[in-house]
Each structure stands twice: as structure tokens, then as C-alpha cells.
Amino acid sequence: MFLFPDRCVLCDGTVWGSDGGLCPMCRPMLIYSREPRCLKCGKMIGRSEREYCGDCLRIKHFFDRGFSLFVYNDPLRKSIYRLKYKNRQRYGYHFGKMAADHLGNEIKEMKVDAIIPVPLHPKREFSRGYNQAAVIAKKLGSELGIPVLEDYVLRVKNTAPLKLLEPGQRQNNLKNAFIMGQYDVKLNSIVLVDDIYTTGSTIDEISSLLKLHGTREVYFITVAAGMEK
Ligand SMILES: [Zn+2]
Ligand SMILES: [Zn+2]
User: Fold this and answer.
1) What is the pLDDT of residues 185-207, one digit of tens each?
2) Which of 41-50, 111-120, 154-163 has the lowest mean pLDDT?
3) Does 163 or 32 have the greater pLDDT score?
4) How far is 14 from 6, CA to CA, in rounded Å?
5) 30 C-alpha to center of ligand 1: Å?
6) 9, 16, 105, 158: which has the fewest C-beta neighbours closer than 10 Å?
7) Which ligand has the shortest distance to the CA of 8?
8) Which of 174, 185, 175, 179 minimizes the C-alpha distance to 147?
9) Whose CA is closest to 193, among 184, 202, 182?
10) Residue extents of the structural domains in the chain
11) How many Å lie between the centroid of ligand 1 and the Cα of residue 94?
């Protein structure tokens, strides 16, 4: 087998191999999201007798259901930062493969027509050189044999980074941030792909737009989500 140097998604150290993207030291630091999970957003919840997390009990979501691959922790926070801001596009490929391996069954059960990455504003995508969500989505799609439609939804407002805003400001900030792209096909069921799930405001905004335009079921997959204590 031909081996080439790759980088570990967590420590950025060199790993050798054709796939994987994780060094043996870092492997135990990734915590796969598992049951008990919120039946709506997929976030891990501490107590198994509950069906939904506190957020999903309070907020009416527009998406139908979602899953995250990992519990958001400090090593992942740094990893996703490098994926977005330090040109580590390759991490997205690895996360896409991991999502296919660990959430493949959940995604197959969704029976979606297409995978749609959460779009970046063209200006931001140009300066970054890629949309990290699209990198993840393309690998996920090629692994599972599901088409990926990158421009089905477009971001037309270059919004302030959500982490700088209070939860109340987030939804306002996203108002009219997305429009439908120029597609003739109508998709009945889709899965959105993004890097992190926090309050779900971005996923909700896109879901409500899609449902307004005839998509009946909207699911999502993210690399990481927080865990409810
Ligand atoms: Zn490592
Ligand atoms: Zn939830």
C-alpha cells in the first residue's frame, strides 16, 4: 500500500496512511456521540428517561431531526478552528469519512434525495478558499452514494460570526441570510451538513426556507455538538 503523510485532525501531527486522519495518541480524545440522545437535535443528554434536551423543549425547530458525530470538546474546538481558518481543508475530508462510518445507518434511514452543505457567503468562501461544510459533505456523499448539491441554498448576507452574538441576536442576524439557488429539481428530503451545532439557529433558518419551497423533510449532520449535563 502506498503511504503518504497526512495530518491528525486533533493535534495536527503527521500520520502515515491512506486514510484515517487521527494519530493513536489522539484517538481516545474523540468522544462519539451516543445514546441517550435528544430525539430532535441528537445532542447527548445526561438522563436517559428524557426524550428531548432542554433547548428542544423550549425552542420550536424547523428541522425534523439531526445527529452530531462527536461531543464538542477543547481538542475539537481547536481542530475546527484550523479547519476553518488555518487552511486545513483536509480535516473536512476526514470528518466526512468518519461521519459516513459512524452515522451512515442514521443517514440511510433518512432516505434523503441530497446532501446540502450549509453555505458560506461567497466573499468568505473566496477568502478561505473553500467551504469546510462542503468539503465534509462531498466526502460523506461519495462514501454513501448520495448526491451533494452545493448551490441549492445560497448565503446572500455576510453575517457576523455567531459566536460573537447573544442567542437572541443570532436569529435576527440570520434573517434573510439565505435564498434558494437556481435549481429546477424539487427535493423532498434533504440532510444539511455543518461543522458545529450550537443553538441550531443556522440549521433552522435554512430549514424554514427549504420547507417554504416544498422540501418536506430536513435533517442535519454536524461534526460536533455540545452535551447537555
Ligand atoms: Zn494526534
Ligand atoms: Zn435537542
Assistant:
1) 889 999 999 999 998 999 999 99
2) 154-163
3) 32
4) 6
5) 10
6) 105
7) 1
8) 185
9) 202
10) 31-225
11) 13
Quick one: which ligand is closest to 38's CA?
A: 2
pLDDT in tens, 131-168: 999 999 999 999 999 999 999 999 998 877 666 777 67
If DSSP codes are grouped into helix, strand and coil, which group holds residue 75? Answer: helix
Residue with cell 458545529: 196
CB 63, CB 219: distance < 8 Å = yes
Q: What SS3 class is residue 197?
A: strand
3-state secondary structure of 216: coil
What is the whole-number distance in angstroms between the Cα of residue 20 and the centre of ligand 1?
11
Q: For 37, which DSSP code? A: B
Tell how far the Cα of 25 is from the centroid of ligand 1, in angstroms: 6
Residue 78 CA: which ligand is closest? 1
